[in-house]
Amino acid sequence: MSSLAGVLIADFSRVLAGPYATMLLADLGAEVVKVERPGTGDDTRAWGPPHAGGEATYYLGVNRNKRSIALDLADPSDVDVARDLATRADVVVENFRPGTMERLGLGYTSMKERNPRLVYCSITGFGSGAGAGLPGYDLLVQAVGGLMSVTGEPDGPGTKTGVAVVDVITGLHAAVGVLAALRHRDQTGEGQRVEVSLLSSLLSALVNQASGYVSAGVVPGRMGNRHPSIAPYEVFETRDRPIAVAVGNDRQFRSLCAALGRGDLAADPRFATNTSRVAARGALAASLSETLSSRTADDWFAVLMAAGVPCGPVNDLAAAFKLAESVGLDPVVDIADPRREAPVPQVANPIRLDAAPPGYRLAPPRLDEDGAWVREMLKP
C-alpha cells in the first residue's frame, strides 16, 4: 500500500514549485486533481521547445500521477465545482497571489469552515504580509534573495543557476510542510494552514553562506567554482576537459598529493590544514593545475577515486544520466499510457522506500482529460 493512499489533493498551483510538490506527493500515493485554466491550462504546457510527442517537456517533467480538470474560476458554476473539490480534499495546494483564493471564496478561512480537517498549503513569492503584492518568479528571487551574488566568477556578473532551483527547493519545503500537517491531523483531527515562500526557502537553502552572514556578519561574494571555507574544493582543467576535486579534510588532501605524485604539497606548511589551505588557495590551485593538466579527466578520475579522493569530470546531462545508470540508480522510468502512442519517459523519484516505494500510475494528463471523472467523483 502506498504511503499516501487515500489522500486527495486539490492542486490549484501551476508552473513549478507547486506542481513539483504535488507530483512528489502523488508519487507517494496521493490522488492529485490538477485544476487548470480552460483553453491553455498550466503555463508550462506552452513552455517549449523542447517538445516530446507535441507536448512541452517542461510540463511533462512535473505533472505525472495527476488528473486534470479545466475550471474557469471566473465562472460561478465552475467555482462551485472547485469548492466542492476543496471541501472533499485532504489537502489544497495553491500558488496564486495572496488574496486571490479569498476573492474566489476558496481561501483558507472559508474552506476550513467547510472542512476542519483540511491541510491548506499556500506558496508565495514573498509571503502574505508586506510582500504579498510582489511577483514570485524564480529569476527575480535568485536576484533579490542573494543567490546570484554568490554565483558566477569573481570578476563577472551575478549568474542564475541552470535550473529554477528556488522553485524546486520551495516545492520540497511545501511537500515537507504538507506531510507534517497531515501527521498533525492524524494525531489531533485538525487541519492547518501551511505557508512557504520562495524568498524564505532560498534564504534557508543558502545554508553556510546565510549562516556566515547571520552569525558573523560576513557578506560573501562570487568565487566561481571555489568554496569559501574548503580547499581544494573546485574545478580544475585537465588535458581534455574540467574535473571537480572535492577534498573535505586533511586525510583526503594527503591522499590527493600522494596520488598526484606531489608529496611536496603535503609537506608544505602552507597547506598543512584546511584553514591554511583556504588562506593560500591561489598558490595551491596553481600547483594542482600544473599537475592535473598533464593527463585527461578520465585518467585522473580513475587514479583519484582509487585513492579515495572525491572527484569527477564535469558532465553534460547525457553523461550524468549514463553515470546514474552505471551505478544502479535507475534514473529513468517509462509510464505506459493507453491514450498515447508510446510510454512517457520520466526522471525517477529520488526517494527509495522499502515498504511503500514511489509509484508511477499515470502519465502527465492532457488538459481536462479527467474532467468527467472528477465531476463524477464529486457527486454525493
Automatic annotation (TrEMBL):
KW Transferase (keyword) present: yes
Domain of life assignment: Bacteria
Keywords from the UniProt entry: Transferase
GO molecular function: transferase activity
Pfam entry (one): CoA_transf_3
Record's protein name: CoA transferase
Organism encoding this protein: Phytohabitans aurantiacus
